Amino acid sequence: MRSTETSASRRSSLIRRVVFVGVAALVLLVGGGIVGLRATSHPSSGDDATRNPAAAGGNAAAAGRAQSVTVASDTAIARAQQRLRQVPGDWVTWAALGSAYLERARVTADPTYYPKAEGALDKSMSLRSRDNADALTGLGALSNARHDFSDGAKRARQALAVDPYDAEAYGVLTDALTQLGDAAGATDAVQHMLDLRPGLSAYTRASYDLELHGRIADAETLMAQALQDSVDPADIAFCRYQLGELAWQDGRIADADREYAAGVAADPAYLPLREGQAKVAAAQGQTDAALRGYAELTQVYPSPAYFLEYSDLLRSVGRTTQADAQVALAAAAQQLFTANGGNDDLTGGAVALAQGRVADAVRLASKEWQRRHFADVADALAWALHADGKDSAALTYARQAGALGARNAKYAFHLGMIELGLHNTTAARADLERAREINPNFSPVDAPVLRSELDRLGSS
Amino acid sequence: MTTRRRAVAAFCAAAGVVLAAGLTGLGPSSAVASSHREAPLTAADPAIDNTDLYAFASPDRPGYVTFIANWIPFEEPNGGPNFYPFATDAAYNIYVDSDGDAKPNATFRFTFHNIDKRGNNTFLYNNGPVTSIDDENLLFRQTYTLQSSFNGAPFKTRIANAPVAPSRVGPASMPDYQKLRDQASVTLPGGWKTFAGQADDPFFLDLRVFDLLYGGDLSEVGQDTLAGYNVNTIALQVPFHDVALNGDAKRNPVIGVWTTTDRAKVRVTGKTVPLTGQDRVQVSRLGNPLVNEVVVPAGLKDAFNSLSPDKDASIPQVVARVTDPEVPHLIESIYGIPAPATPRNDLVEIFLTGITTKANGPIKADLNSQLNNKDVRANTFRPSEMLRLNLSTPITAAPNRLGVLGGDLQGFPNGRRLTDDVVDIELQALEGAAQTGKLVDALAAGDQVDANDNPFSDSFPYVALPNTGAVNGGGGTGAGASAQGSSDGHPGESAPPSTETGALKDQGLGSVTGMALTASGTAGAAALLVGGVWWWRRRSRIGEQALIAAGASHDPHGNGDHGHPHGPDSDPTLPL
């Protein structure tokens, strides 16, 4: 359903978005700089706008988000539903419908599609329990989306037992093994995917694998190739965002800015791009623009991670009360997520740490570590242990986080600070210098700490 | 529901905390998704997707064979902003095997390049009327390079920077699209003709026929499900002697043809290896329009796109699937028509060897196997799936849409013409199964789509011009062939039996019995039925084009013959 109207509606959605930014800014001024949770996050439920007119700005943004670009998954869902009304026994289309819901959930970050996906995939399995690789792959992807990576890997392997040439099943397996911390297994799985069906889905995963191993230039090459193969605006936005992230993590702010902007031009509804633009603005000293960006982002998408980033930026400019308020919102959002059956102790630990609940942070990060030995989890556990004064224990995990060779300023900073706590100034200086070399703007709160510690340590 | 209430309760508790901190602007909220990197999984990748292959002796140019291969299914007219470019990181290949060893003797490789003058200022495809193929108003265009390799020799470039016919934007932007088509049809030294660009999807069928596989019925047929959609076509016309074994189409008239799409192989394992080298990965393969379901078991449905033909016979599941296909059992379970006895060695001939008496198959005819080439050594012949064409079969003046089954030996499965009605071939043949002689009433009408929605041209590249109207607008597709192009094969027309007999004699097929060819038609039919499913599923794999909007549109063209399911050409017992 690509049509010339799409660009027109995209433009009008941009206009709405500009209006919304204005409204949000007004709210910030009037409300003393605090914006709460928005009333709705479900672009699919059109009646939300009437239910809470107070959040008109948020709804305008949500509406723009719904209309602007998720064209491909919308079309796929509509077509599948139409076909299934006529041929309800079509298990292939039931599986396709489930996968289309998952794509929609991914692009909109709206988990209310998960139960719909599950229903469609279960229906497919009930119609055809034997040799139904499509449904198994979809169920695996669903488990991954819900952070049940062990089950994701299991389903993917079941799908591959049915169809060893199923590239998508290898994609699900790659995602699961990556998050579980089975780096070698993940690399092997993504290589299989590349060998079966090189293209956007395989390139993006291979790029991530290279990134995790610190091969940034190669990761960018593959992500650029994925971008070249992108047709759907949401796919273009994804690739642009990742190219921006690769540049950002590598300390190339202008490159990152360019990629994020290009992504927004392709799909203004893809929210991670707004996070990218906000942190670039902060790094460029455009604090007001950055704060506005985070205010808008958290309004539209109240995720704990975004609240915490917003809080960091507020704290870095001395707005401590407002920063604490964002931490409280992060905790509320995380509580809500958990109450809905969400399972993400990595984020839970980060929230606890931000709240100063150090023991909880250690406990939650440890719990996540028991589930999966992923680098981010190792880093979070190390940093929580460091906060708890247990630098010896922290050191093991901090080293584990960097074991694959990831080029990550945050990991290096954490390792350096832990080494400093252990009075190993030589190693600390080296790792802190490495963090600065990789990306001196990696965090509005920690980057100044990095600078002052390096000043204190003097050059090597 | 319970979860939702719990969530609200939890949120209220959390909000209480927040409110106590003196915050405002809170309201009920919803959960957010877990946070980790999620990449696209079922991403649209239509540019590499083979849809159909046609191969036929050129009716207007004796001594030349035409290959037409299509990619990118379900192109909606008005598909901006980029419309439907060929992939620039893929190679599009047409292969010819003339000696029967299942490896190419000729390879034609098409690679594409973008010329994008839009910069960052505009998304527009054109900024004014496009009146010629190199019009400056055409801001995004593609060119291609055609290379060929014969018998393993290094590739030679036959033409570089050849123009691609652009996606047809509409009558205002492209007032004379025929002119653009003509300018994109290039003649090369050696008499080759080549074309790449958008065209009407020449495949015609009602996809709902295949719903019976899912327990559906055939109460609603007669709508060309592909009406109004466009594809990207690559067409190539070369002299017989360039593709016949030893350059001698008289001694060696049979060729096998298939197409692939491939991309560069990417390696991420090992730090010393560059990401890409010379190796290629085949991502799509197509010969006969009927393969993945009938030849390949369900568990290997993706395998076929990865395999090269010389591997086919070494996969035991593939052979087993050919000799005992699923569809006849399905028909039996639904309609009570007993499935033909197995093993189906007739199917082996159809799919893996070509129709020949030299492989001990049950069909007593020599039609289109490389084994019938005089210079082929039988000991190097390797069964494999490809579209096999006998170049010496005389051109049929009035092609029968049922091809070989209808007594027209120049049609499918002896190569494939644009007008061959592959779905009805299968259905009619199933009705007339040699083993039973009974009609399956529910299938008797076939899919009731007997011809393409737009007439084909009678000259290269034969395919109709791209459609311009919205697919589901119901107002016709606004395409059609060029003014000079009349249909080169009137659908539904049946050649008289005497002509067919003559054709058989011309082919040296005097020993062919009616029973034998009916059997072959039946086999082809079963194959085609599943082939259609395969076809449908292949298209359904593509994210955006995922599913057929069956029933979304009515038949805007009034395709004729729907009310005549038992026309003369549908008689399965037609004597040969």
Present the secondary structure layout.
The complex is a heterodimer of chains A (460) and B (576).
Chain A: H1 4-30, H2 48-51, H3 56-68, H4 71-86, H5 91-108, H6 113-127, H7 133-145, H8 149-162, H9 167-180, H10 183-196, H11 200-212, H12 216-228, H13 233-249, H14 253-266, H15 272-283, H16 287-300, H17 304-316, H18 320-339, H19 345-354, H20 358-371, H21 375-387, H22 391-401, H23 409-421, H24 425-438, H25 446-457
Helix pairs in contact in A: 1-3, 4-5, 5-6, 5-7, 6-7, 7-8, 7-9, 8-9, 9-10, 9-11, 10-11, 11-12, 12-13, 13-14, 13-15, 14-15, 15-16, 16-17, 17-18, 18-19, 19-20, 19-21, 20-21, 21-22, 21-23, 22-23, 23-24, 24-25
Chain B: H1 2-20, E1 50-57, E2 64-75, E3 90-97, E4 106-116, E5 140-150, E6 156-163, H2 177-184, E7 186-187, E8 193-200, E9 230-239, H3 240-243, E10 254-266, E11 276-286, H4 316-323, H5 327-335, H6 345-353, E12 387-390, H7 422-431, H8 497-506, H9 514-540
Helix pairs in contact in B: 6-9, 7-9
Question: Could you describe the 3D structure shown?
Answer:
The complex is a heterodimer of chains A (460) and B (576). Chain A is built from 25 helices and no strands. With 460 residues, chain A is mostly helical. Mean pLDDT of chain A is 85; it is low at 1-70. Chain B has 576 residues and is of the alpha+beta class. Helices cover 18% and strands 18% of the residues of chain B. Chain B has helices spanning 2-20, 177-184, 240-243, 316-323, 327-335, 345-353, 422-431, 497-506, 514-540, and strands spanning 50-57, 64-75, 90-97, 106-116, 140-150, 156-163, 186-187, 193-200, 230-239, 254-266, 276-286, 387-390. In chain B, the strands form 2 sheets. In chain B, strands 3, 4, 5, 6, 10, 11 and 12 form a 7-stranded antiparallel β-sheet that branches. Chain B has a 5-stranded antiparallel β-sheet with strand order 1-2-9-8-7. Residues 1-30, 431-439 and 472-576 of chain B have low confidence and may be disordered. Chains A and B meet through helix 1, helix 4, helix 5, helix 7 and helix 9 of A and helix 1 and strand 10 of B.
